[in-house]
Amino acid sequence: xxxxxxxxxxxxxxxxxxxxxxxxxxxxxxxxxxxxxxxxxxxxxxxxxxxxxxxxxxxxxxxxxxxxxxxxxxxxxxxxxxxxxxxxxxxxxxxxxxxxxxxxxxxxxxxxxxxxxxxxxxxxxxxxxxxxxxxxxxxxxxxxxxxxxxxxxxxxxxxxxxxxxxxxxxxxxxxxxxxxxxxxxxxxxxxxxxxxxxxxxxxxxxxxxxxxxxxxxxxxxxxxxxxxxxxxxxxxxxxxxxxxxxxxxxxxxxxxxxxxxxxxxxxxxxxxxxxxxxxxxxxxxxxxxxxxxxxxxxxxxxxxxxxx
Amino acid sequence: xxxxxxxxxxxxxxxxxxxxxxxxxxxxxxxxxxxxxxxxxxxxxxxxxxxxxxxxxxxxxxxxxxxxxxxxxxxxxxxxxxxxxxxxxxxxxxxxxxxxxxxxxxxxxxxxxxxxxxxxxxxxxxxxxxxxxxxxxxxxxxxxxxxxxxxxxxxxxxxxxxxxxxxxxxxxxxxxxxxxxxxxxxxxxxxxxxxxxxxxxxxxxxxxxxxxxxxxxxxxxxxxxxxxxxxx
Lengths: 308, 232
Fold this sequence. Notes:
Chain A is α+β, with helices and mostly antiparallel strands. Chain A contains four helices and 18 strands. Chain A is 14% helix and 28% strand.
């Protein structure tokens, strides 16, 4: 079937869970900024969790479907659609995501996924290198996406229990483990509230507020690996949380790392929102990651019943 | 060998400090030892100047009474047994040697005069010294396929520009402190640009998209702007 992009929205890209195994060549993972929401969107339409979906940013797209399709939208709340439950768009029907009312990024999954070539093992779009997804770029008005015609019968009207969601909020407390240079900055990172700056993007969320100053003076570090979640402190003292498209190595001091479980909270922040960091030990971060996996496993099992 | 957590999904193994050609064979040896036959839960291995970083999936490494971080550290130690010997045997010898054609100066190298002034050299001498040296690809990062090269003659060390450029064209050859490198994509960047290569350093569609690999030797070969334009 064909899905025509009538309006592309602000920044709509195809993303799955990312491109693993090529960081040594400088290729970032990319993939959904909010991996939790992407996985749930896919599970809701009966797809494997790593299927490519649309990541919509702040202003959503308007799409026309040639054939009836089972879809789900998760993550941020956009005008015009009910999130976190699957629904059918009829043949010839339109689906319009308006402006985001809460959060920043929504994930639109279609049963069967989109037909897009996999580049280095992933369907994710990496805009900076123009690779992956739909022709390596964000969707534009008039683009036509292809998808297999898969209609899965589904029982009843229901939605996902909100208690399993990450604690999405416009001013969340984000848990982080200490970085290698944490001591250089005293306790400032964990004692302050920061504001999300407009220059934030898929590479990094930029924070404004109190400047972090290296106690020992500007340490000249030899570049080494960074990861999504790394909180690096450039010379201007304004922290950057590295995100899905971030470079693979860096030389700025690393004050902390947002734990994987809380990266979706950061992904849903928009310019002007605020955040605070809370330090947790590494073992707690791992425990939380395990609980998140268990939650998703239970959801997957539960949904398998609904598709029978 | 030191271990540091990089968040909850990676362990950084420290093998030395600074940009040190003598540390590099150990970085390569450890990278090779870790990449070979990776157990489930170990995702990928990223070498840099003096570190090797191992990415893992914590939820796949729990159980058996051992915490994921300790388990990854134990895996690294178990693979590092012959490190010193391997480093000497296999990785002290040079890898491939790749020649990179560069059109120095002019519109392709807008900072050549500034670098020359900083170094107290004529622009022609900067080119002569830059092309005359042997370089080693220590790490790839910043952008896909962007090589960080060690081996820049000390006389050519030049600080980065005070204000980074918003857009550096792909192929630009730059100097950033003690390093030289090649911009693989059009990106913002703060290095001093002395020339440009017509080669594509990153080809997304290719099986091996990065032109250079960690461990390659690089030599620069001057070409004229006409040769640059005619390059296929």
